[in-house]
Amino acid sequence: MIITEFLDNDLYKFTTMNAIQKKFPNAEVVYRFVNRAKTKFPEGFDRALRAEVDSMANLTLSDEAKCYLRSKCYFFEPVFIDLLKGFRFDPSEVVITQVDGDLDIEIRGLWYRTVLWEVPLLAIVSELFFIMTGQKAIEVEDRALAKAKAFADLQAEVSEFGTRRRFSFDVQDRVVGVLKQGMGSFFKGTSNLFLAYKHGVTPIGTHPHEWFMYHGAQFGYRIANSIALENWVDVYQGHLGIALTDTFTTDNFFQHFGSKYSKLFDGVRWDSGDPIVFTDKALKHYEAMKIDPKSKTIVYSDSLNVEKVRQIKEHVNGRIHDVYGIGTYLSNDVGVNPLNIVIKLFEVKPNGAKSFVPTVKLSDDRGKYTGSDKEVQLCLLTINQ
């Protein structure tokens, strides 16, 4: 059994679940697995994955973990934590098929329930792949310690974001421990709730692309960012204040990130495109809003390594608070080729709708677009009018 702890998941899935059950409790969704690198999976992988998914039905939130959430996740109301205590994964929501080496996964059900599947499913797929192909991790602590020292030398504030494509739980666990010991105050925490609990570090996360994608499908692409931000603020009242910018391109986001949101949110997250260009756009935006950029934060989080962090820090040069969320480079740099896999929202059915509506994610990198070609073009035409 690969996932053995209910909290072995990223914080942002729980924050999004909480917002969903408050704002869209009856919404239904469809998620699909996207194998960006077209990796071929070994024979029998679907059956092994099915067994792992079925075993998750037995996961529960322990009393100790419940107490941890109450004490650390101050932005959750007690009623939501009680909901998690009674929550059980329903494996029937996950459909797995494999034809030769091509793996397909589809998740269907109520959004507030199915939102928790993405991260542990991807973690299972990744770890199971390396188990079944006989690949071994090497130099786990040595590589992690070298990176910890390099980031600390740069005075880069780093959080570990590597659950989805980790080599294994054991590797991620060991890496978080090394970062905590090797980086001191420059290590800010991990996205993984269980590892944050185990290692006594801060759980990190706010909202994902799917939050904005759903709003685009229900309310329209022109106003999706504004309504998504307003709904987030209504739920969290200023907490969890890092805004994701690139669901419908960063340029479109900043058009809707007016004075109210720019002042209320602590900062923004870069997740695609050129980080140097993004930095300049963010600085220009805050200055136009008469806000001192030094009072705000950019979280950089797309395929980072030591050299990229060095380049970004040199460009930022203290003009804005810069922090770095780093995933696969930390949790799966152990002598293997990591999988390039994601699970994305593809269709939604808002309460009262007669049928499912397609979703779109654009980003600032065309290679990260998701959705049908027809819907992507519709979205582009709409936001660029």
Protein model, in words:
The chain has 385 residues and is an alpha/beta fold. It folds into 2 domains: 11-135 and 336-368, nicotinate phosphoribosyltransferase, CATH 3.20.140; 140-331, nicotinate phosphoribosyltransferase (Alpha-Beta Barrel). Helix content is 45%, strand content 15%. The strands form 2 sheets. A 6-stranded parallel sheet has the order 5-4-9-8-7-6. It has a 5-stranded antiparallel sheet with strand order 2-3-1-10-11. The termini are far apart. The mean pLDDT is 97.
For the largest beta sheet, what order do the strands appear in spatially? 5-4-9-8-7-6
Which CATH C-level class of the largest domain is it?
Alpha Beta
3D shape: globular
Which second-level CATH architecture of the largest domain applies? Alpha-Beta Barrel
Task: List the topology elements.
Layout: H1 11-23, E1 28-35, H2 45-55, H3 63-72, H4 78-86, E2 94-99, E3 102-110, H5 111-114, H6 118-132, H7 140-153, E4 157-160, H8 169-183, E5 187-190, H9 193-199, H10 209-219, H11 224-236, E6 242-244, H12 250-256, H13 259-264, E7 267-270, H14 275-288, E8 297-300, H15 306-316, E9 321-326, H16 328-331, E10 341-349, E11 357-358, H17 373-383
Helix pairs in contact: 1-11, 2-6, 3-4, 7-8, 10-11
Key terms for this structure?
385 residues; alpha/beta; nicotinate phosphoribosyltransferase; six-stranded parallel beta sheet; five-stranded antiparallel beta sheet; 11 strands; 45% helix
